[in-house]
Amino acid sequence: MITPKTGRTAPLAMDAAEFRRVGHALVDRLAEALASIPGRPVTRDEPPAAVRAALGLDAPLPQQGVDAGGLLGDLVEPLFDHSLFNAHPRFFGYITAPPAPIGVLGDLLAAALNPNVGSRVLSPVATEIEAQTVRWIAELIGFPGTSGLLVSGGNMANFAGFWAARAARAPWNVREAGLQAGAALRVYASAETHTWIQKAADLAGLGTAAIRWIAVDAEQRMDVRALESAIAEDRRAGHLPFLVVGTAGSLSTGAIDPLDRLADVCRAHGLWFHVDGAYGGCAAAVDAAPPALRALALGDSVAVDPHKWLYAPLEAGCLIVRDPDALRHAFAYHPPYYHFDERVTNFVEMGPQNSRGFRALKVWLALRHAGAAGYRRMIADDIDLARDLAQRASAHPELELATQSLSITTFRFVPRDLRPAVGTDAAERYLNELNAALLEDLQRGGEVFVSNAVVGGRYVLRACIVNFHTGPDDIAALPEIVARRGRALDAARRQR
Question: Which CATH architecture has domain 115-357?
């Protein structure tokens, strides 16, 4: 096909008419496929070989191309037939939200523009939209900083906060001289902190031994006295405390650390206070959220994930910092081959990426589409549904409620005749094994999709709701589905 005005033949080129024809047909098919999700299984129990066979994924690289319309048209059905749907109203698994339709279309528009949002000269509009998106997220959650950037997800947002803390709190130029130039740096996090902290300590050169894992209380919140003891112990040993990580909604149970008290400790000791709000941070916008969550505003930096509770399509994480210069101090270099105006925002200077896609557009569009009030209502609805599930699990004769916080409810299946034995070693071993088997059965069955947690040594099922498609009927159905499949597994195990 001839690219307009150039006379060049390019196999990937399309003229406007073909692009319109192929694109319209694809959108029509996608609309039908998306509408069909509630009637499909959440996922299918298929081995990898079956998935490869369905899409011809063992075939060699083709030497000749095919028609774009046929290629895309033939792909929609097998993709939807062999995928797991986090947009399914009965997906209660990991903290992955359905993609907002405006975000899906926003990604299409962003890909059409294809700016490199590393420097402003290469992305004048995209840079300003990303900057406003960061400011709007900060405003939504009540964080006083307005400087930050979008990254791929929670891990990268937390990494960037970690590196900013290292550059800001090491009393020497750690970026130039490295870690060997000073005392051993130490970071403090609760035992419930996501594994990103291990990756960050590893990749930052500290090593995972630099992490001091602080015990949690009965509600899985960081023990502040244990934190203070650990800091004092490290200082006596000649180490250099520099960072405390507070969790604003743990992955397992939605637990919220006492962020206000952690902030006090950090101020007293001159430490950087980073808040991991990848999951729970956006709930700070909601009146019904736990009051402890709003203390994330006391952090030096906060990570949130728009692809979690702002329902953006993957990928979209966000780091916001209180000090507008903190990220440049941690990441900026000025080689001679970059001729960028340093008086404007160049996101290449604020994070680890040089080449950066236009992630902000889908988030910015969704914030405009729903508005702050719309987001508050959707997040509050998710929390209400999780609380409803907790009440139903507590009332069910074969379920035992474990925890409820934010939009995460954990519970386990307990056969009626074992209830009197709950707490004994033999019963607890059996219940842990039974609920682990039940999780696998539920995930493979396709009716619902839940995940798991371990709470006080007990293996429990975990339902997380960050899904604007989920409704009261889906919540009402979940306990009996779990109990029905649990009864069948229990009966089969006892017959062995």
Answer: 3-Layer(aba) Sandwich (3.40)
